[in-house]
Amino acid sequence: MDSTLLLLLFIALFSASASAYSSQLFRSSCPKRCHCVPDIEANRLLISCRWTEIPSEAFSTFPANITKSLTVECADSEAPSPLPNGVFRAFSSLVEIRIKNCRLDGGLSQRSLEGLSALRALHLDTARGIRVAEGAFVHVPKLEQLSVVDSQLEGFPEAALCDLRNLQILNVSHNLIDSVNLGIASKCNLDVLLSADFTSNRIGAVEEKDLWSFPSLRQLYLGHNAVSRFDNHAFARSTQLQHLDLNDNRLAVIGRIPEGISHLNLANNQLTLISATVANLVSLKRLNVSGNAIDLTTPFSLASAHLEALDLSANRFPSVPFGVFERSTASLVELNVAGNRIAGLQPRAFRNFTRLQKLDISGNQLKSVADETFAGLERLEELSVAGNEIAHVDIGVFNEVGRSLVRFDVSDNSLQEIPVAIGKLSKARHLNFARNHISKAYKFVLSKMPHLRSVDLSNNRLQRVDSFVFADCQHLEKLVLRHNRIDEVNADAFSKCPHLKRLDVSENFIAKFNGSLAELSELELLNASSNAVEILEWREFPSNLRHLILDHNLVTLIGSAETSKVRDVELQFNRIMSLAADQLPRGLETLNVSRNSISVLADHAFRFSSHLRSLDLRFNQLKTLKESTFTVELEQTPQMELFVAENPLECSCDLDWIKKPKSKARQLVKIVDPDATLCRHQLHAEQRLSLADIDRKQLLCAYEQICEPECICCQYGNCDCKSTCPTGCSCFHDATFETNVVRCAALNGSSARAFTPRDLPMFATHVYLERLELPVIKSGDFFGRARLLHLHINASNVETIEPKAFNSLPSLQLLDLSGNRLSSLNGSELVKTSKIAYLFLNDNRLRVFNGALAAAVPNLQVVSLNGNQLEDLPESLEELMAPKGRLSSVSLGHNPFRCDCSDRFAMQRWLPENVERVADSASVFCVENVTRAFRENDTTTLTAFPPNQGGDIFTMPMLHFIAEGNRSFCVPQASGIFGQNPTENSLLLTTLVVVAVLICLAMAVLIIALFRKTHAAFSQRRYKKATPSLNCSSTTPGCSPLPPLIHYDAFVAYSRKDEKMVVEKICRRLEEEDQMILCLLHRDAPSVYSSRFHSISDDLLRQVDQSQSLILVLTRHFLENEWCTLQIKTSLQYFAKSKNKKLITVVCKDVDANQLDPELGQILRKNDHIMITESIPLGSDIFWNRLKSALPIRDAAASDCSQSQIYSEMYGSIVPSDIV
């Protein structure tokens, strides 16, 4: 006996040791980011892994030989997760594989499942775009379950499933499959396949042989496809089919289906009747034909005497179609005729439905329920007549169902009162009267229902909760009175309701509960939101209340919560202004007081709230959060999540505990979403900083006078570590006293007169002097400020800085002198300030950047010189910005830099090479004072341009000048013809010009001779003395001088891209019909893109000047191309200033006149223009009428005036009589 006991003890110890060893083995060999669980079967593991994607060598370290089930889920469904060939070769004992949310690149190849000879189940869920290769399942002959769900599967290769002879369950739902045969029709039979799920695919029809390969099929799911028909022989071999789901398709006619079907779902199709094939199913137990268009004309009644559930809802029956299911009255358990057009129920119509337990007649047109309507329904448990028009229920309607009915739903009707008839429902547990017109509830009616658990009277018209309406409901657990008109609750309204756990009286007008809740000892949740409660008295609520909802009330005061045990409180959208410790229950776990007016949190407000896990203070008026507010008495407390965004918090040193590493409050409180929690900077009120990014030194507190903690001379008048804020200034310090900020801005009166920089605190670290009157910064003004880091003297009219004015500022890193009147700095001002890294001199009057100044700040990294008077790049600055220079950034915009085509100015050469280090390169302009340049005989290329700023200044972006100049007006001439010497080429050109002039003179003499010869015949005629008005000579007394020589009637400016349209629509008619002489910009004018600027400008201006009118065709192409060139813009602006000429602008439809630049807008406003619209198209009669009326009238006399001088020269004052 003893030996037997010893043996048993040894075996137990060995088993325990083996088990412990196995568990230890499992834990130690479990792969990373996986969870391993021992299976019931000894030495087998169930492994579940969650990766971003399946790693390439993911399974190499797995305990493959003992893995029974493997689940892999990918966090990134877009990341490629291929399954290499033979990846599972070592998993010879693996029974189940589940892969979810992984993109299996390459899909399942022939060898992906190699080695899985024991695999029984393969589940692929959300494997997007998966493809299955031929022979992919040849290595898993024992597979019984195959699931490929929501993976965009389009189908299987032909006969691919023939390798799965043991397949019993197939699920390919939510894919892109368009055929049921899956490529195996007539190829093989899956003899043991019992269930196939094709839900939510793209199947349009079931053909004759589609299902022949599945002879043993029991369940077929084809719901949510596009099936519009199935062949009459499609189910010829599916003789064992019992469950057929065809809901949500497009079937209008039901063909032949197996006779043995017991569950048939045809919901949401296009049926207009119940076909004979369905009616003749004698084994049918559940039928759903809801959501069709069936009415009483359906000719067949159901033959099944075993039908248990029938759903005829959402059809077109005007009455309950008893004839359809007359053979099933004794077997029906559930009947649904909701959503039809039933207008009435006949008494005793259901007398033969002895087994009916659930009846749904909701959503019809019932107006009343008469006595004996439900007679015979002795087993009825659930009755719904919701969504009708019922206004009256007879008192005896529930006489025969009162002992069985458990749930009664009469919501969404027109009841004026709670029906007295419900008093007969002795077994009722759930009553729903919501969304009626009930304004009256009888006493002692509900109390007759001893089993009543819930009552819903929401959305009615009750005005008060009277006594004895809900009283004495011993088992009532849930009462909903939401959205009524209740403004009074009687003290005994809920008496003797000891088990009431949930009470909803929200959206009423309740101001007080009058002690009505005192007896509700088991009440767990009270929802009184959207009422009129002004004072929160905790003693009004049961001591065991756990969840209180009082949002959207008028709560301004909160009483003592010493005895309350509430854990979760919602008080958002009230008028609470402060919180103190005695106002909060000690067991509080969550508190939401967002969207109130809380501006004060008392010290130690949460000292008793040791269980508080979440505090929501968002959208209040809090300006600070003191550390003392969140200290608690108990040491062991959970960390509280604090929501405090959207408050007008100030970045004061009271918030220092949030950033302080070893703060006790910081360990107890976690700020939720610190990026969205902003505070207003004390110094720069417009700046708001997030608590996530703010630095401790930015958390400042204002002071008038402070003494640092370790200062030993505070009692004396002259003490450096005692800081006194100058009169009229604002001063701040941080919690550690390492930052001391002084700001003096726009002082006036006595404060301005008394202020001097020497009054600044000696330990100041940041000084801001703004908008003061400090014309001179004197030596020693800042002497001894050894801690000074940043010094800003802005817009203070500083003109002179004495030598050593900033002497002995060894810590100074930033000096800002912007916005003053400084004309020079020579470096003597910055003695012993070698740490300056940032120097801001912008918006002064500096003409140079002195080399000595650069030498005085050897650590300079950033300098701003924009807005000064620099005409060229300072040499010292160029050295600092060299590739190995120390400057990283410079600002140079808005200086009057000069530019030329030569290398005369360094700035235009230097800028393209350093554009990335110039912070405001887009604001660097070439500025030319045209008037001064001519007066001082110091001209550049830009001197030829007309002023575009005032009457003297022409400006142009420097980068644009450099780019444009290299293409046009600064392109150098060729060095010689065929590369010859330039001097020789100049002589040759001069010779050619002289020869050309001589040739022109000879031709002119020849033309004059021919002209005189032609008019020789006139010399034989009589002559008369010409009147003075006919003599156009300027020397003749009383005659007006000659007008300018006009060669063209009009100059036409347009875009080259629109030339065809302009010629056909405008120019051709003017030239051919009106005989006008036109000069076209791109046909007759010289090229404006390849020639040098001056020659182009002169020729173009000359042609424009020789035109009587100018027609500007304004299109989008013109704005984007021609208008951007300086030559064309200048010529058009020049013509627009001519007083005796006409400028007509044709504004096409693709141009928005309101978006034009100022120059072009001025041309439109001061001259005639024609707007092309749908009603006035280009080339229409209205267009031509407006154009011709805008053009000047051609004067024949004026046009011949050029000839009058010839007559004058030939004949003097005697002209032929024909002319007279």
UniProtKB/TrEMBL annotation:
The cross-references to PROSITE patterns, in alphabetical order and at most eight, read:
LRR, TIR
Q: Kindly list the places in or outside the cell where this protein is found, as annotated in its UniProt entry.
A: Membrane
Q: Which UniProt keywords apply?
A: Glycoprotein, Leucine-rich repeat, Membrane, Receptor, Repeat, Signal, Transmembrane, Transmembrane helix
Q: Cross-referenced InterPro entries, in alphabetical order?
A: Leu-rich_rpt (IPR001611), Leu-rich_rpt_typical-subtyp (IPR003591), LRR_dom_sf (IPR032675), TIR_dom (IPR000157), Toll_tir_struct_dom_sf (IPR035897)
Please verify whether the record's keywords include Manganese: no
Where do transmembrane segments lie in this chain?
A: 987-1011
Give start-end of the signal peptide. Answer: 1-20
Its BP terms in the Gene Ontology are: signal transduction
| Superkingdom of origin | Eukaryota
One Gene Ontology CC term in the entry? plasma membrane
- UniProt domain TIR: residue ranges: 1046-1191
Keyword Repeat in record: yes
Q: Name one Pfam family in it.
A: LRR_8
Q: Name one GO molecular function term.
A: signaling receptor activity
How this chain sits in the membrane, per its record, is: Single-pass membrane protein
Task: Tell me the protein family, please.
Answer: Belongs to the Toll-like receptor family.
Q: Which PANTHER family match?
A: PROTEIN TOLL-RELATED, TOLL-LIKE RECEPTOR
Q: What is this protein called?
A: TIR domain-containing protein
